[in-house]
Amino acid sequence: MKKKQSPPTTQEYKIRCSEIEIIILYRMMLLRTAKNLSTEEVSFLMGKEDDFIEKIESFKIKSIYAHDLFVFTQVLDYNAGVVYPNSVDIDHQKFNYKLFKTICSDRVIYELKQLDENKEAFKTIFLLMDSRHDIDSFSNSTANEIEQLKNLMDKLFEKGYFTQERLAYEILYKCQDAIDSSIAPKNLKVVLQNYVDKKEEYHLEQRISSKKNFSGFAYLQV
To answer: What number of other Cβ atoms are within 10 A of residue 74's Cβ?
Structure first.
């Protein structure tokens, strides 16, 4: 018997801000979804807490620092200025907006609407569709990739790679170069956490990075 699908659920988030802030938010969401990454994966690559990007997208973090925007583009391998509008006539007046996040059985739909003076939605600003990153449709491939990553990690430990401070996105690109294939950041996070939790022969600790222009967590062998 076919499993009955749950009906979609919608969450709503409100903010009052300028047009340029909305454009930056839109570009961040567009760049993230274009890479097929979850908010948690991007937060991980930035060395932030798991919910950092989710808080930005749900307006819990209302002001985004330029430094965080730089790191965001850096870890996703984009040009540093890609989140900023170029040659656009920006209105700095503040408006009220509401974001509708609809979670379906296989996807997530984001629709941002501008509100009128009565706080009623009257104009769609953008509409984006994303995957359900909390659903793993390829569990066997995931298990194989995690095992492959563990073997790679052990080789990196043997070569002394982690005797120097390493950032999550640096480790990701190092592993991708080693196997000449893309790797899901969420799988790398699982593997690294096992070393942090001392479940493996080698051990890692997370510490605030001392590297210039990066204020997030880094990994170092202990």
So the answer is: 17
In this structure, what token pair is assigned to residue 80?
Answer: 């540093």
Q: What is the pTM of this model?
A: 0.92
Locate all alpha helices (DSSP H) within the chain, ordered by sequence.
Answer: 19-34, 39-45, 52-57, 66-75, 139-158, 168-179, 185-196
Tokens 């790398």 belong to residue: 188
Nearest-angstrom CA–CA distance, 149 and 141: 12
Give residue for tokens 């002001």. Answer: 63
Contact 23, 95 (CB under 8 A): no
Q: What one-letter code names the amino acid at 156?
A: L
Q: What tens digit of pLDDT does each residue of 44-58 get?
A: 999 999 999 999 999
Q: Which residues contact residue 67 at a Cβ distance below 8 angstroms, ignoring those fewer than 6 apart?
A: 213, 215
